[in-house]
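Researcher: Next entry in the queue.
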Amino acid sequence: MQTQQQTTNGEIAVKNGVSNGVHIDHEKSTIVSEAMSLKSNEDLVRIIGQHLISLGLSKSVDTLMEESGCRMDHPVAARFREHVMKGNWSKANTDLQELKSLLENPESLLEMQFLLLEQKYLELLEEGKIMDALSTLQYELTPLNHRTKRVHQLSAYIMCATPEEVREQAEWSGRESRSQLMERLQQFLPPSIMLPPRRLDTLIKQSIEWQTDKCPYHNSSTMWDEKLSLVVDHMCSKESFPSVTRQIMTDHTDEIWFCSFSPDGTKLATGSKDQTLIIWDVHETEFKLTIRKTIDGHQYGASHLTWSSDSIYLIVCGPEDSPELWIYNAITGELHIKIAPGPEDSLTCAAWHPDNRRFVTGGMRGQFYLCDLDGNVLDSWEGVRVHCMAYRQDGKTVLVADSHHRIRGYTFDTTNSDFHLIKSEHSIMSFSMDRTDRLCLMNIQHQGVHLWDMEDRVLLRKFQGLTQGYWVVNSCFGGVNQNFVASGSEDMKVYIWNIKKEHPIAVLTGHTRTVTSVSWNPTRPEMLASVSDDGTIRIWGPAVNLQSSNN
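Model: Structure for this entry, 551 residues:
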């Protein structure tokens, strides 16, 4: 008679190796687990041995292999490496024939033979053995019928008069390049036969990339910096992120509508309802800005600013009633040209062509012009009511957010054309493109900040937290690799998100009215600027070393 086995919540009754109808062979499972563990240990020993060899610790490797009972590489592969490193090309080729059956792709044999003979040929030229090199070219390389164009290039090097000229013409580092040759050859061999080159370095790099990718505040330009260690997991402190006010400027006398750092990060431009544009110089090391030039006379105010990619010119546009556009030389602060095509026009936004000699501009009254730096209208579209625009990197296509809640592409070419990209349920108040020209960051009325992939035309993320109603609020990409998004908000705060997360990683307070625009310094990833209807400009930086900096 079978005895009943009681089970409680969360437990599973197992009788005779059967669980939920699935037979569990514990002995076999244990054997498989142990085999996997042994294989992993063997791989680890081989990887450590490879790294020790790179450090010149050959005796340590011999001891490690002897005690572990492992071997670094297949015996034939080990001989192959030895012969390549010694330049014994005939024996290396013999080894290669033995390895042929072990190659995952038999077609790789031809490329490996070519690489060996190419190295042999170049070394003979370097040694001045012209006839031997010519023989290698004619009777060994050419009969392979492989990479004919490269063979023709190699034949031209026979005319080189000196070893230095051979190395220069071939863009080759000489016989010292045998280690690089071996690394190229290793790529064709299965890992079970010979480890891929610098495997431990690769694994460590992958680990660091994974950790930094998971770190919400990582904002460093170098992988190997003082913050990273191999003995502890990496996590940046929020204190090293732009999260505290480092400077407040009150030079504007009314609402500030826009701010933008220059592409070279040395200047900040701010536009205000007080009819002034201020160009600021950014201190090279401190979180401090000083006025370079104050320019007044913008009757309707300065509500949109855009820099040329060389940081020389700055376009200034006004709000909807403004029929004018100004271009300034930001270096001298002088007006380059003022454009006013017609009194009924509305020029509220602009975008530079990649060549910095042309730009597009438009507004909500249906004007959309392509102009040159002298103010000449080169082309135009009729009836396009523009909220915001951006030039694509191809120099032909302009992205335009229009009054129909769309982003469309307009192509200025021999034949002008337009096409649909994105349709939103609500008005797209502003948008910006990242450096890859693929990701688009949109501030959408009543919705907030959305991230779109413009190539696949899909919504990637809706960032949470901020308040976006009827007013124009501008957002931006930022950080070393543009891994962050920042935006103003009608609730008087600055919101910062990691581009992979929907919820903010930082909420910056201090402004007393709507934060209308933010700009992340493109060359100082620890510096962020924000402006507000409260008439102030705030420069944000990390909290670390703040006290010593103030002192």
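Model: The chain has a mean pLDDT of 88.
Researcher: Noted, moving on.
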